[in-house]
Design brief:
Layout lengths: L1 H17 L9 E9 L10 E6 L11 E2 L3 E3 L5 E6 L6 E6 L11 E2 L6 E3 L10 E7 L6 E6 L5 E7 L13 E5 L5 E4 L2 H7 L5 E5 L4 E2 L1 E2 L18 E8 L4 E7 L1 H11 L8 H11 L9
Parallel strand pairs: 1-9, 10-12, 10-14, 11-13, 16-17
Antiparallel strand pairs: 1-5, 2-4, 2-6, 3-5, 6-7, 8-9, 11-18, 14-15, 17-18
Amino acid sequence: MAIGHWFRAAALVAIVVSGPACTLYQPRPVTFRVRDGDTGQPIARAQVEARYLTKLDFGVWFASVGPREGVTDRDGDLTLVIDPRKSSFHLYVTADAYPENPDFGRVTRGSPRWDRLVPGPWYSPRDEYEIRLYRGPAPTAEVTFPDGFRGTVLVRFATGGRPASLAGQRTFSYTASPRGMVEVADGGLFEAIGSYTGIRARYTTGAAFPTYVPDRHRPVPAGAPADDAVALRFITPVWEQHTWLYVLGTADEAEAVERAVWPDHNHFDQAAYDRIVKSHEPPAAAPER
C-alpha cells in the first residue's frame, strides 16, 4: 500500500514539473543597448522592463535572476539575467522625449526594433540586443491605389538598419501595386511606433479615404467612418513577417477578412494569412519559349 502511494505521489510530481503548467526557462546575462533610431546614439536613463505573459506557468518563478527591470547607463546599456527567447517574453522600453504608445511600449520579437547582436544558437551563454526608439512626430505614409481598388491591402516593411537618407523624415509617399501590396522602405520607424493610423489611402484621381483602427475593447469613437463607407480598415499586424493587413472597403468586408485570419479573436490562422500574402505577390513570369 505504501509503495502504491509513493508511485502515485511521484507521478503527480512528474506531471506538475513536466506538464504545461511548468515550462523550462534558461535565464542568462542579456545586455540591451537602447539607441536613437535616427542617429544611432545611445539613450541614457531609458526604462527597460521584462515581463513574461503567462497563465499558470510555475516555471516563470525561475525565469530570471535578480531584477527584471532597470535603467540604461550613460552608454545606453542595461544587463538583466533573463530568458528573452521564450514566446511569453515581452520587453517594454520607454525614454524621455520619445513618444510612448501604451499598446506598443513592448518590443515585439521579429520587429526591426529588436535586433540580436550575438551570433550563434539561442542557448548561447549571453545575449545582446539593440533596441531602437524614435522621437516624434508619428510617421505618415500616403499610399496611392489604382482607381476603384477594393480589397485587402498588405503593407510590408523593409528590414535592417534605417537608410541614412531617411533620418529624421516622418512623411512618405508610396504607390500600391495593382494587387494592393505596399512596400515601405522605412519599416523600423513605423513598426517602432505602431503607427497604424499613419497609413493613408487615396485613389489616383485624388479621392481620399479615412483610416480606421478598430478596438473591440472600446466603444466606436465619434467620427468613425460609417459601416457602409469605404475606408482603409486595419485588421492585424504580423510582426515576424513585418507586415500589416488592412482592407480598403466597408465594415462587412473588413470583418470577413478578420474572421478569416482570427477565427475566434484568440487564435491566428497563419495558413489563411499566408494565402492572403500570396495573393498580393506579382504573378509568376510566363516561361520563355
